[in-house]
Design brief:
Number of helices: 0
Shape: globular
Distance between the termini: 40 Å
Order of helices and strands: EEEEEEEEEEE
Oligomer: single chain
Largest sheet: 7 strands, mixed
Helix content: under 10%
């Protein structure tokens, strides 16, 4: 079994920065790509960024150039550095991975960006 736990959310003014972290525990040896998703009120959950085991990162167009995803395979952690935050970035952010067809989610962390 695998557990994911996010931390680092909070309230920030537009233009500010936040750093989210995700700690993975349990059966971690099979982890491949890990990702950050977000869900704003009344909207569907959307992919924000993903990073493969070898460090290849991909971003949604809405965050490209502002967010940076990283991972530490030795520590089983993943981070999302968010800069130049905008009010439309307000959402609950979730870390995610998929192992052999089973999807795992963290409990989510709230990010609120005030204008």
């Amino acid at each position: 079994q695998l557990q994911l736990a996010e931390s680092g959310g909070g309230l920030v003014q537009a233009g500010g920065s936040l750093r989210l972290s995700c700690a993975l525990s349990g059966t971690t040896f099979s982890i491949g790509t890990v990702a950050w998703y977000r869900q704003a009120p009344g909207k569907q959950r959307e992919l924000v960024a993903s990073i493969s085991n070898s460090g290849n990162a991909n971003y949604s167009d809405s965050v490209k150039g502002r967010f940076t995803i990283s991972r530490d395979n030795a520590k089983n952690t993943m981070n999302l550095e968010m800069n130049n935050l905008e009010p439309q970035d307000t959402a609950v952010y979730y870390c995610n991975t998929n192992i052999r067809g089973t999807t795992f989610w963290g409990q989510g962390t709230q990010v609120t960006v005030s204008s």
